[in-house]
Amino acid sequence: MFLITPLFVLSYLSRIPETFLKKIIHTTKWVAYSTFLEHIIHEQKMIQFKYGWNVYWSGLVYFKMYIFSYLYPKRPLLTWLLSICSAIFFIWKFNVPLTKRLLKGPIFIFVPTRYKFLTNYKILFDSFWHSSMTKVKATLMYNLKLAQKRLT
Question: Where does residue 117 fall: left (phi above 0), alpha (psi -120 to 50 degrees), or beta otherwise?
Fold first, then answer.
């Protein structure tokens, strides 16, 4: 679902009708399709739900995802506010453990803690924020030199 979801959003946004009633029907169809697909994937044991999560919560997230994607270009501040409130609600509802390791981001969860030099330089993994690969290459070379010094 990690790679499919952005494609769903692009497809959803590319076919939004003009009238309000048709927008409601269009959104309902996309939420139903997405939720049904996730249900099938769950039934095939390709994903598993934990901590009380179920396909109905996924349906709510899909609904919010489509609505927020549509709303963001028109009302970005409202969308940010609703997203933050939504995130806080889900953290509270599902008792998400906010440990220091989880707050490092999705890529850093997989980095063993013994490689501290990788967690100190987030630019290695967030290279898409930088306009040129030369900055990334320079940072990589710097980190490799640091690692070699620490190992010797």
Answer: alpha
